[in-house]
Amino acid sequence: MPLQYPLIHVDDVRPENMNEGEGWAISEFRLPITKACGSSTCVFHSIFRPGSTHKKHLHTNADEIAVYLSGNGVVGQGDGRTEVRAGHCRLMPAGIDHFFHNETKEEEAVVVGFYIGAGSVEDSGYRFAGDVTEADLAMPREGFNEGILVHLDDVPQENMDAGDGWSITDFRIPIGTHNGSSTTLFRARFFPGAVHKKHRHDNCEEIYYIISGHGLAGAGPDRVEVRGGHFHYIPKGVEHWLYNLSETEPVEAVGIYIGSGSVAESGYVYMGDVTGDDIKARTPL
After folding, report:
1. What is the mean pLDDT of residues 255-267?
2. CA 30, CA 47: separation in Å to the nearest integer?
3. What's this model's pTM, rounded to 2 decimal places?
4. Residue 1 pLDDT more than 70?
5. Cα–Cα separations (whole angstroms), residue 99 to 40, 53, 86, 117, 251
6. Is 277 exposed, middle or buried (0-12, 13-18, 19+ CB in 10 A)?
7. What CA–CA distance (Å, rounded) separates 33 from 42?
8. Do residues 259 and 207 make contact, with C-beta atoms less than 8 angstroms apart?
9. CA gap 149, 71 in Å, rounded
């Protein structure tokens, strides 16, 4: 039975043929969620092999939020430079040029990101802004004057109310109104048996990405198993939930509440327990 709401695995998405002359010296770039799915926000999954670079560019129409999942490298933003590694989360404001270079010799860097409020790269107002030079890479790496850069290790766990369905082991908000963003970025970790029970967001769309693990996701009438690499788009007002099916491994996910800077602003409404019938109705991987 076809799913009503888009659930897309990155392995099932064709790599984009981006123009290297426009700065796209990325090893692999995929767009699993776009306006073709009904989303207001385009999502990308990019792989940077050692030495590869997304050269200087900007987005005139959209803030960009990026999560660094593996590897490390140097980021430029305006006149600032800094190093990033797995666990860093970053917001690049619209109109400010930026780049990323994987300067490791052996490790791939994997980055997942969101063009907030732009359903495609074109809609984001993408503009190439120039090469990354040796002088750029040699600049002091002292941070940025604009945007947000935070590491998950430095973000406290939220004290969410289990009575409102938050049976999540570890929930953190690296980006939101508390540090100047009108969109929330969250990281959720579910130990075996943990569940975010049925709920909806009346004020915003949600997109989340399963980094690792094996779970069961509900969205409206959909009941489907998910694993690392899945992206899930949840329209505004649609009931959804996520349950860790594994007996040994955690499920880890990152996601956004588009245009809502906090859980409260998202219009969160608790809808009830995930039942045995919900679990029995699942569509397997």
Report:
1. 98
2. 9
3. 0.97
4. no
5. 24, 7, 17, 21, 30
6. exposed
7. 6
8. no
9. 16
Which of 180, 188, 206, 219 lies closest to 258 in space, CA to CA? 206
The CA distance from 237 to 200, in Å, is 5
Pair of tokens at residue 262: 């906090």
Q: What is the pLDDT of residues 11-50, one digit of tens each?
A: 999 999 999 999 998 999 999 999 999 999 999 999 999 9
Instruction: Please report, rounded to a whole number, the percentage of residues in the chain having pLDDT higher than 70.
Output: 100
Using the predicted structure, report yes or no on whether residue 285 has a pLDDT greater than 80: no
Residue type, 250: P
202 C-beta neighbours (distance < 10 Å), count? 11
DSSP string across 182-233: SSEEEEEEE-TT-EEEEEEESS--EEEEEEE-EEEEEETTEEEEEETTEEEE
Query: What DSSP designation does 133 have?
Result: P
Name the amino acid, one letter, at 270: Y
Rama region for 136: left / alpha / beta (φ>0; ψ in -120 to 50; rest): alpha
Encoding tokens for residue 141?
A: 């790496």
Question: Which residues lie below 8 Å from residue 33, measured CB to CB, with a gap of 6+?
Answer: 6, 8, 39, 41, 42, 43, 207, 231, 233
Sign (positive or negative) of CA dihedral 102, 108, 109, 114? positive
User: Which of the four pLDDT bands, split at 50, 70 and 90, describes residue 284?
Assistant: confident
> Is residue 128 scored above 90 in pLDDT?
yes
Average pLDDT, the chain: 96
